[in-house]
Amino acid sequence: MELKEQIEDLVAVQLKGSPYFLVNVVIAGVKSVPKITVWIDGDEGVSIDKCAEISRKLGNQLEERELIPTAYTLEVSSPGIDQPLKWFRQYKQHTGRKLKVTLKDGTIKTGTLTHVQEDSILLTEEKKAKKKSETEPPAEIKLADIDKTFVLVSFI
């Protein structure tokens, strides 16, 4: 089993039965000092204290199991705005927020996430008119058609 899969399994056991879930594990850097980044999220977000707790437990498990024979860097955090939404559960917590959705065919849609269904989302796109914004009825987008989605930050 690859190191990434072993780390995913260790984190999954820690998060089982909680409102938190694993988003992604990335192992980068040079082989002599790899950097392991673990992104977790929760149905209502995740605190820095929770990230620290998981980091401590995971670090201890990596040491006990001697999974990494060299020095390494471990980072556990919640996904930032630079990370795309990856799982269905992440869409739910962003209802009411503005998203940029890139479809697999290359089409880009920007609008407010109004509803999340089992296999699709409803996105209300704003169409710019000459003097005011017009709102169209929400468009249903199948999750299977989405390549990536980013939450857009508004500073208004």
Automatic annotation (TrEMBL):
GO cellular component, as recorded: cytosol
Domain Ribosome maturation factor RimP C-terminal residue range list: 89-155
SUPFAM superfamilies membership: YhbC-like, N-terminal domain
Subcellular localization: Cytoplasm
Residue ranges annotated for the Ribosome maturation factor RimP N-terminal domain, each copy included: 17-82
Keywords: Cytoplasm, Ribosome biogenesis
Record-linked Gene3D superfamilies: RimP-like superfamily, N-terminal
InterPro entries xref list: Ribosome_maturation_RimP, RimP_C, RimP_N, RimP_N_sf
A single GO BP: translation
Stored Pfam families: DUF150_C, RimP_N
PANTHER family in alphabetical order: RIBOSOME MATURATION FACTOR RIMP
Job of this protein: Required for maturation of 30S ribosomal subunits.
Family membership noted in the UniProt record: Belongs to the RimP family.
Name this protein carries in UniProt: Ribosome maturation factor RimP
Organism from which the protein derives: Rhodocytophaga rosea
